[in-house]
């Protein structure tokens, strides 16, 4: 599989510079970082939550875990993790577990963890388990310009 069509179209529309980093097939973002020889705190991963208002994407470093309780309190919303079936429907051009952290491309509300806002380089799933998209941190931040930032995760 290549870059997910929705992601490809979104990046092309935004005229963002990026390159692809192929790696052996992996099953988790931590494994992906290791296989690609990238620090997992520089890999942005998407965690999908939902509440009565719909779905939202929380983008955190692959080295971290989402703080769902903190997210609920800060945003005054009753978030729960979305199911694998829901993810398959929302991101139907992506392999299961390889959702790119570009909710805007899919019309999904987004929240960006503060830990990703000062990186020189950011890597993330392209929609499959064998490629990472790499872009400059400034380009990643510009791409997600209107997204709310906060402290939404903790490390192991």
What does this structure look like?
By secondary structure, the chain is of the alpha/beta class. The protein starts with a helix and ends with a strand. About 25% of the residues lie in helices and about 30% in strands. It has a single domain, classed as YbaK/aminoacyl-tRNA synthetase-associated domain (YbaK protein), CATH 3.90.960. The mean pLDDT is about 95. It has five helices and ten strands, in the order αβαβββαβαβββαββ. The protein has helices at about 5-15, 30-35, 70-75, 85-90, 135-145; strands at about 20, 45-50, 55-60, 65, 80, 110-115, 120-125, 130-135, 150, 155. The protein is globular.
Within CATH, the superfamily carries the name: YbaK/aminoacyl-tRNA synthetase-associated domain
Strand content of the residues, in percent?
A: 25-35%
Q: How many individual helices? A: 5
The rough form would be described as globular
Task: Briefly note the structural class of the backbone.
Answer: alpha/beta
Q: Do you know the CATH topology?
A: YbaK protein
Oligomeric state of shown chains: single chain
Strand/helix succession: HEHEEEHEHEEEHEE
For the CA atoms, what is the radius of gyration?
14 Å
Query: Any idea of the CATH class?
Result: Alpha Beta
Please estimate the helix content: 25-40%
Distance between the termini: 31 Å
CATH architecture label name:
Alpha-Beta Complex
């Amino acid at each position: 599989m290549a870059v997910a069509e929705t992601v490809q179209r979104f990046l092309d529309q935004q005229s963002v510079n990026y390159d692809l980093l192929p790696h052996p097939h992996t099953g988790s973002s931590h494994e992906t970082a290791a296989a690609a020889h990238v620090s997992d705190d520089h890999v942005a991963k998407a965690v999908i939550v939902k509440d009565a208002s719909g779905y939202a994407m929380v983008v955190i470093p692959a080295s971290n875990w989402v703080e769902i309780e903190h997210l609920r309190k800060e945003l005054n919303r009753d978030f729960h993790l979305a199911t694998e079936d829901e993810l398959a429907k929302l991101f139907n051009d992506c392999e299961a577990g390889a959702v790119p952290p570009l909710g805007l491309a899919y019309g999904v509300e987004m929240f960006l963890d503060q830990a990703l806002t000062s990186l020189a380089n950011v890597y993330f799933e392209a929609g499959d388990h064998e490629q990472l998209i790499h872009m400059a941190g400034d380009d990643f931040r510009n791409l997600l310009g209107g997204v709310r930032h906060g402290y939404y995760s903790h490390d192991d």
